[in-house]
Write a structure and sequence with these properties.
This protein is an alpha+beta fold and 547 residues long. It has 19 helices and 10 strands. Strand 4 and strand 5 form a beta hairpin.
């Protein structure tokens, strides 16, 4: 058995034994009568002696109470003597009861310790009674039958599990990638790892039914107890197999396993009652209790996990619609995400038992938080909505930020926009940057861009022929566009050692990644000039030796 499960089971068993011991002690104290008198302590009369004497029917018969002098010394002495005699009788009776309890035979099944005491004799008597009870169980056919059923289930369950793994294809073979209901098949195949625990629970349940049906046995309490422990072990194996996150696995192990143990030993309802009876926040007819927080944590985690899964699937479905442009897809996807979030919050509050009127308190707290310190977050949230609806920035746009950084818009979130630079880094840009500052969007309306390539030729070159030989070579490149303008050659400058030219051309896209427009056309210019014998001069200096 794994160490973590063994430690959890041990802690749960110790808690259950402690609860049983405390209940037994409280029951013994509650059964003790208030008129018991410890040895050596004086017995006091609960009423005055004179009133007892006057209320005695033997004294009152034929007696004129109005004529009695209660202050007579002889009457006082007689009453004191009677009270001492009654005290002596009570002490003698109590001494006889204590002697009889100590001298009781030790082999009796009904031995009881003195009430309200845990003396060594009482513990010895309790231990003897427990030993006699165990011996009685070992002599009982029903108890031995339960022991046999438990051993049979424990040793036969792994054999049955192995046979099922070999003979059933969904336990034996992993599902193929194109298999129908692959997700369900995958979970079924992974459940083969705790198939032994499943078989153990099933065999114990079957044994309990058989033992209860046979008149000569008729008992199944031990089998039921072992079945509950087997269910706890099965729950642990399922958590270990299906919960991949370490934090969630530990949370599930240290919360669900103790709760399952409480259910096995019959204290689950008492624990639930304790949680429901602990009021944390009075809220009219439906106060917020400890159980409310437990439900909030359970259903919150469940619904937000389902919501995250639904959001991912829903946004993929929206973005796969070919009839919508990219910006419209993003707007619809964000609206879907916000509506889904609101629905999840309402469902969590409903299942947790929090009245929807509590939303007023939550919204008031949020409004106060926004007023005190959440203004930047609220501003970024509103700016994100503005960006989505006015489409000034869309996914896939190439933008240049105010600080000079540039890249493609990867995603527009509630608080920030993710910009992926040309070297693969992600920049988290607050949404207010696009509503408060000036920035460049190269692909806002048109993905076509104009670029230039530069080169220089020597002064002895026939520059009138350059356009005839370079422009056709540039136009032959399939990435160069003829609209909105055809490529043209411009003389830019007469330099110190060369005449400098530039060729302007239009292309669709950004000059990066797969689109290396300027690099490709620089190669074209170089090859064309070399082909026609035109050189690109290097810097030259003329040196004269003056004598």
């Amino acid at each position: 058995m794994p160490k973590a499960l063994l430690r959890t089971l041990l802690i749960g068993l110790i808690c259950c034994v402690y609860v049983l011991f405390a209940q037994n002690a409280l029951a013994q104290v509650a059964e003790a009568t208030p008129d018991e008198v410890q040895a050596g302590e004086p017995v006091e009369a609960t009423e005055p002696a004179v009133d007892n004497a006057l209320n005695d029917p033997l004294i009152r018969e034929g007696l004129d109470v109005s004529a009695v002098d209660l202050l007579d010394p002889e009457l006082q002495d007689a009453l004191k003597a009677r009270e001492e005699a009654e005290r002596a009788v009570i002490e003698a009776v109590l001494k006889q009861q204590r002697d009889a309890d100590v001298a009781a035979p030790s082999n009796s099944d009904d031995v009881e310790a003195p009430k309200g005491a845990l003396s060594p004799d009482a513990l010895k008597a309790k231990g003897t009674a427990i030993l006699n009870k165990v011996i009685g169980w070992l002599k009982s056919p029903s108890f031995l039958a339960q022991i046999g059923a438990v051993l049979f289930a424990f040793f036969f369950s792994p054999i049955l599990a192995k046979q099922l793994q070999k003979r059933l294809f969904f336990f034996r073979d992993p599902p193929a990638e194109d298999a129908k209901l692959k997700i369900v098949r995958d979970y079924v195949y992974r459940s083969r790892n705790f198939l032994r625990a499943v078989m153990l629970v099933a065999l114990l349940a079957l044994s309990a039914i058989i033992l209860k049906a046979v008149p000569s046995f008729g008992e199944d309490w031990l089998v039921k107890l072992c079945q509950g422990i087997a269910v706890v072990f099965l729950l642990y194996k399922a958590i270990k197999e299906f919960v991949s996150n370490d934090l969630f696995r530990k949370l599930a192990t240290y919360t669900m396993i103790p709760l399952a143990l409480l259910g096995v030993f019959g204290y689950f309802d008492d624990f639930i009652g304790l949680l429901e009876g602990t009021t944390l926040v009075p809220m009219g007819e439906t106060p917020i209790t400890a159980m409310t927080l437990v439900r909030l944590a359970i259903f919150g985690g469940l619904f937000f996990w389902l919501g995250n899964l639904s959001n991912s699937k829903g946004q993929d479905a929206i973005r796969s619609q070919e009839g919508l442009d990219v910006s419209t897809k993003e707007v619809v996807a964000k609206l879907f995400q916000m509506i889904l979030f609101v629905i999840i919050v309402v469902l969590v509050m409903s299942f947790a038992g929090i009245p929807l009127s509590g939303l007023v308190m939550i919204m008031s707290a949020i409004g106060l938080g926004i007023g005190l310190g959440l203004q930047p977050i609220a501003a970024n949230f509103v700016s994100g909505l503005i960006i989505l609806f006015d489409r000034s920035v869309r996914k896939g746009d190439f933008i240049v930020l105010p600080d000079g950084q540039e890249g493609y818009v990867e995603a527009i979130n509630m608080r920030s926009t993710i910009v992926e630079t040309t070297d693969g880094k992600d920049i988290m840009v607050p949404n207010t940057t696009f509503t408060d500052n000036t920035y460049e969007n190269w692909t806002h309306k048109d993905p076509r861009q104009r670029y230039e390539v530069y080169f220089g030729v020597s002064y002895d070159t026939d520059i009138d022929k350059l356009e005839e030989i370079l422009i056709p070579a540039i136009c032959a490149n399939p990435k160069v566009l003829m609209e909105p303008e055809e490529p043209d050659l411009e003389l830019r400058e007469f330099g110190e050692y060369a005449i400098k030219f530039a060729i302007e051309f239009w292309v669709s896209g950004i000059d990066d990644g797969e689109n290396k427009f300027t690099s490709d056309l620089n190669y074209v210019v170089w090859r064309t000039l070399k082909k026609h014998g035109i050189t690109m001069p290097l810097p030259q200096r003329e040196i004269r030796n003056l004598k």
